[in-house]
Specification:
Elements lengths: L3 E2 L4 H4 L20 H9 L1 H9 L4 E2 L2 H16 L9 H6 L1 H8 L27 H15 L12 E9 L5 E11 L5 E7 L9 H19 L5 E6 L4 E5 L3 H24 L31 H6 L13
Parallel strand pairs: 5-6
Antiparallel strand pairs: 1-2, 3-4, 4-5, 6-7
Helix pairs in contact: 2-3, 4-6, 4-7, 8-9
Length: 316
Amino acid sequence: MTAMVDTQPATEASLEGAATPDDAQAPRRPSLSPSRAADFKTCPLLYRFRTIDRLPERKSLAAVRGTLVHSVLERLYDLPASGRTVEAAQELLAPAWAELREEPGVADLFATAQEDGAETDANAPESVEAWLASAGRLVEKYFTLEDPTRIQPHGREELVEVTLPDGLLLRGYVDRLDLAANGALRVVDYKTGSTPREMFEGKALFQMKFYALVLWRTRGVVASQLKLIYLGDGEALTYAPDEAKLVRFERTLQAIWTAIERAVATGDFRPNKTRLCGWCDHQAVCPAWGGTPPPFPVEAAAAAGWRTTLPVVELG
């Protein structure tokens, strides 16, 4: 059975568009998050489907496992420093999983159990036991990269946001924010995959530069280090930004936003056919694959605070 669910987790879903009954704190005007900026860069039509149409997408075992591992690593730092051991972290898996499996669509991923190794297909079901064991190995790998007994995070799963002078609202959630005694900031993000090849490092650091920019604009401090921890192969990627680089990055985000606003105003979101299309759930409604997109949701876009020049079409 294929599980169809909202494409964005709760923290991401509230970052763009209008407030919903379930999230009274959501912004009442459009904003830009790292994920959605990356979507638009990858494929403008994908951005539209996820952010404006909010078409459902399948959950994958890999994505849900990432959510589980993130939850465990967040809870790990609720424990006293001396208690942050591998064994304690493994014990956190069961309660975190008990909560996660109640979310819509998660249990359906395991409706048909397969033998270990089924994840050659990201959406292929496998046994819960094998899947949980793989999550446990990722949690254990974390301890080879950092000593959590020596870290006291300043923030975890922390919302960071800023409105730039041109009115662009940037919002995102930081996995972990460390603050040194001298005021130095370190931004840490956990990845359950493997370290990207050198040619893809810039794409991987896009998210971290986004966070560094928001923190600089809100705190007046340039993060001393951006750190991506890859649990898949036990490697870490670090980057030290400076003000000049963040200014350039800010201009990049403003250019992306200008292009997004233009696309919303006209309803013109072009597909970008790449090898990543193989992982996309929207090929059936994508012109690049012979599909026809649904009519642009003008009313929904306007309700979410977007400016559009498109007329509202009365149906029926």
